[in-house]
Every structure is written in C-alpha cells, then in structure tokens.
Specification:
This protein is α/β, with parallel strands linked by helices and about 350 residues long. The protein has helices spanning about 10-15, 30-40, 55-65, 85-95, 110-120, 130-140, 160-170, 185-195, 205-210, 215-225, 255, 315-330, 340-345; strands spanning about 20-25, 45-50, 75, 100-105, 125-130, 145-150, 155, 180, 200-205, 230-235, 245-250, 265-270, 275-280, 290. It folds into two domains: about 5-215 and about 310-345, TIM Barrel, CATH 3.20.20.70; about 225-305, no CATH class. The chain is built from 13 helices and 14 strands. An eight-stranded parallel sheet has the order 1-9-8-6-5-4-3-2. It has a three-stranded antiparallel sheet with strand order 7-11-10, with no helix packed on it. A three-stranded antiparallel sheet has the order 13-12-14, with no helix packed on it. The relative contact order is 0.16.
C-alpha cells in the first residue's frame, strides 16, 4: 500500500498530519531540518527541546516554519526543569509568532502546563509509560497519548513491552488517540503496534540516520552497524543533566566499565553559538555540533536498530512506517489483544 492511500487516523488528524507517523522529539537530533522534512512528507515532526529558554524556543520554531508550511510540534520535558520554568517554556511556544506548533510532553506534566497550552488553542499530547499515567494525563487535559515501551531508545518511562501497553491503554481509553513508541523502526513493527490498537506510531531511532538528522556522523555509524537489540543496554550511566531516569543506549566503554567512569570532560558541544563542555556521563547526545570522544557519549538507540541500515531521506522513513500502520489496521480485530492485557491493566 502506497503512502498516498494511507488514512491519517485519529492521532495524525488531531495535529493535521496526513500520515500516522510521528517523529520523536529527540533533543539535539530533531532540529528544524529533520522536523520540516518529516512534516513535508506528511508525518508529524517534533522539535526536541530540553532546558531551552523562550527565546531559543522561538528561534527554533521560526527556523522550522521557514522550511515548511505543514504543521509540526515541539517536545518539552517537565522533569528536568522546575514548574515555573516549564510554564515559561510553554509560553515561549504559544507566543512564538512564526507558527502554531502542537505541544508534546515527555512524562506527565503538571495540569497547569497542559491548561496553559490548551488555553492558547494548542493540541497537547503526553508521553507516558503506564496505563495509570495515561489516564491521569487525559484527566489533566491531554488530547492524545504516546505510550512508550521498554524497547525505546533514550530515556525510559516503563519496563513493559510496547504491544502490551498499547493494548491495555486502547482498552482503557478507547476514545483517546493513541500513539505507540518503542522499537518501531520498520514497517513490520509499525504494523504490530497498529494491530495492537495504536492509531499511529512514534519513532526515534529510525530517524537518527535520516539525511536531515543532526546526529553526529560517528553516532549514526554506530547505529548503522548495530545488528540487534543485544547491542543496546538499559543503564543509568548518563545521568548528568537528567538524573533519576534510566535510558537505553548502544553499549560502549562507559556502559561496560565495572564502575562508572569519573565525570571528566571528554568533549564539547555548541548550542546557539555558545560552547558547553561535555562530561563523561552527560545526558547530552552527540550532534553535528559536538566534538571529542564521541563513542564515550550517550548513544541513545532502541531495540529496532537492526532495521536501520542506510542514510536515507526522512520522507522514505515516513512512507515506510505509514505503510506498516496501514497493514496493521487491516489485520486488527476487535478482540485481537495480547493475552497479558487484563493483567497489565489490573497492575497499572
């Protein structure tokens, strides 16, 4: 099935995307070029933010808006900033004159942040890792949910598999658009997520090696040569700047050391023209603006890495994943849920 014949579904339609594919808001990697390419292809591109101030947020939105007239989003991380700072970030998004991006939050945000975005007329999507948090996010005003399984690269919200989580949330919140995340790097994985009940998929690892990605070349080379999930590991070795959240990365000298290496400076990166040192153990991902011992940095990567085999345009990735979602929808039956659904819902 060609991408032109794939229906957007509820989640994509909510943000006015043509195809049921969301690109993860990977801080540093998902810059305006990648986001615009995904949006132009019909998907939902999302700018990755971190501790950016409102002026930086406005600049990134303006740059993306110069590259595409299609809708795109931004991603904020409530747990790495204070609530007042988060609210300032939301204001920075809603007051940016260049465009009207939808708002996504990684992790459950305070109700005030959701309310602020919704009052400005923005669609709000919350990424969670449990049925409980998904229900709470909707209660606070989220219009859609990203449910993330443990297969995902980057920081983790759950120790459960994405397919079981999708089925459990779809059963509990059938009226809410649901986006599956975790290990979804090819059409087959997208089809399985859609068959389990997802309206759309969100992919991160699949876009690291997109032509328009801002990932460092060495990082992309490591992803391209990763042949399976066993080359990734869930660890807490990259907590500087983002404490208390485990993450899945490609194995390297830091993850395999018997004890955590000392936080000595191993490189530097440049953000908005300003240089910043990168200590060993930093949560910062290596981008095209990073130099130093790249292989010892946080090389976030999901279990679907074996499906990433070439540097290719983001549009090709969007079309492939969208075709997979369409296949999964066609295979879906009302009673086709993993056997563990009831147990998961009861435990969440």
């Amino acid at each position: 099935m060609g991408a032109d014949t794939v229906a957007p579904g509820r989640a994509a339609a909510l943000v006015d995307a043509r195809l049921p594919v969301f690109q993860a808001g990977m801080g540093g990697i998902a810059g305006p070029c990648l986001v615009a390419a995904v949006a132009e292809a019909g998907g939902a591109g999302i700018i990755g933010l971190y501790k950016h101030n409102p002026d930086e947020i406005a600049a990134l939105i303006a740059e993306a808006a110069d590259l595409t007239d299609r809708p795109f989003g931004i991603n904020l991380v409530p747990e790495v900033v204070s609530e007042p700072t988060l609210l300032d970030q939301v204001r920075g998004v809603t007051q940016a004159p260049a465009a009207r991006p939808f708002v996504t939050f990684y992790g459950l945000p305070p109700a005030a942040a959701i309310r602020l975005a919704r009052d400005a007329g923005r669609v709000v999507i919350v990424q969670t890792g449990s049925v409980f948090d998904a229900v709470e996010a909707v209660r606070r005003g989220a219009g859609a949910i990203v449910i993330q399984g443990h297969e995902a690269g980057g920081h983790h919200l759950s120790a459960r598999g994405v397919l079981d989580l999708v089925a459990a949330v779809a059963e509990r919140l059938p009226e809410i658009p649901l986006i599956a995340a975790g290990g979804i790097s090819d059409a087959n994985a997208a089809a399985m997520a859609a068959a389990a009940g997802a309206d759309a998929v969100l992919a991160g690892t699949a876009f690291i090696c997109a032509t328009e990605s801002a990932a460092h070349d060495h990082y992309r080379a490591r992803v391209l040569t990763a042949t399976g999930a066993d080359q990734t590991v869930i660890t807490d070795r990259f907590e500087i700047g983002w404490a208390g959240r485990r993450h899945r990365v490609l194995r390297n000298a830091v993850t395999e050391a018997a004890t955590p290496p000392a936080p000595t400076f191993i490189g530097r990166t440049v953000l908005f023209g300003r240089p910043y040192p990168v200590p060993c153990g930093s949560a910062a991902v290596p981008t095209i603006h990073t130099s130093g011992r790249i292989d010892d940095m946080a090389l976030y990567c999901g279990t679907g890495c074996d499906a990433v085999t070439a540097i290719e345009p983001a549009a090709d990735i969007v079309r492939r994943l969208a075709a997979g979602v369409a296949q999964g929808r066609a295979a879906r039956r009302p009673d086709a849920r993993p056997a563990a659904t009831a147990a998961i819902a009861a435990q969440s």
